[in-house]
Amino acid sequence: MMTRARLHRRGLMAGALGLTALGALSACGRTPVQTDESGRVRLRVAAGGPTGALHGGFYQAVATGAYERRGLNVEILAGPSGADIPALLAASAVELAIGRDSFLPLRLIAERAPIKAVAAFLQKDPVVLLAHPGQELEDLTVLRGRRILMEPGDQTGFWTWLRARFDLTPDQAQPGAPEDNLKAFREDRESVLIARLTDGAPSLIAREVGFQPLVLTPAEDGYPSYSGLVLAPNAFARDNAQALRDFIAASVEGWRDYVHGDGAKGDALIRRAHPDLPQRVLDAARASLRAQAMVDGGDAALYGLGAMTPERWQAFAEQTQDAYSAVPDWREAFTSQYLPSRG
Fold this sequence. Notes:
- The chain is an alpha/beta fold.
- The chain has two domains: 4-123 and 225-342, D-Maltodextrin-Binding Protein, domain 2; 127-221, Periplasmic binding protein-like II (D-Maltodextrin-Binding Protein, domain 2, 3-Layer(aba) Sandwich).
- Helices cover 41% and strands 15% of the residues.
- It has 16 helices and ten strands.
- It has helices at 4-14, 18-27, 56-63, 66-69, 85-90, 103-110, 152-155, 158-166, 178-187, 203-209, 234-239, 241-260, 264-273, 279-291, 298-303, 310-319, and strands at 41-46, 72-77, 96-99, 115-122, 127-131, 148-150, 173-175, 192-196, 214-216, 227-233.
- The longest helix is centred in the C-terminal third of the chain and has 20 residues, at 241-260.
- It starts with a helix and ends in a 24-residue tail after the last helix.
């Protein structure tokens, strides 16, 4: 089994060559998958960072045998925050990857990387904004003039949408380490903290800061990003269409079971990969997944779990156009042809 450290090293070695190598891969011959001793197709999936509830349905599918029943041997590989997904795919360290939001596929298209989102298992981005209680905060327009605390990765992602949509100023962005952000949030009553429901917010944050924060949900205020995206190189999808369809179909089963059934088996595998993650965080995250209909609401309510629509991708691309090195063609960022309803 590839360890987190080995996965990280392989990704770093690919580094700057990642996008170039992927382009070459797309232009070359077939990219057949490997099989194990039982004849099952081996698929390695990059988690894109430390494991958590964002990966719950995938782990549930491993734990319940949903992948195995479809002839797949799936291994989910955790990594550090901000793992270089294009480099991992280019180095053949993994066959598939999980993306946190819709920024990544569009960035890849802007850089001419031949990778597409082939499913979105969270219909809403779980990002939330937390504020001190006792304030009138009806919508996101109240953010002007406030200090916005965030992790560095959000500064080139979610913050770009937030700033453009609500006419915020660059100096409001305050990136920092999670522990520094919590301290600043606790001490500054006017500050706002960017967090995620899949990381146990707001209940986990309440334990840390000593009060129950107010919660603003960007997905309810026009933020159109998907989350839990399955990313596949175009060449891999072309040459292994049935394996990809089987992976997505089993993942649908896993996500449905994780959210509405007993998620204990999936949680056990998540915590094996991430021993420092408390069970209470996963419990809070699963409760949010259900309460917010993040998995089976939105487009999934109409077209099935994993669904994506052109309208959502177009809206996201238009609202975030300043976040990319070149204007991406949003039509190239995704495909629905491997979803069960399109099979």
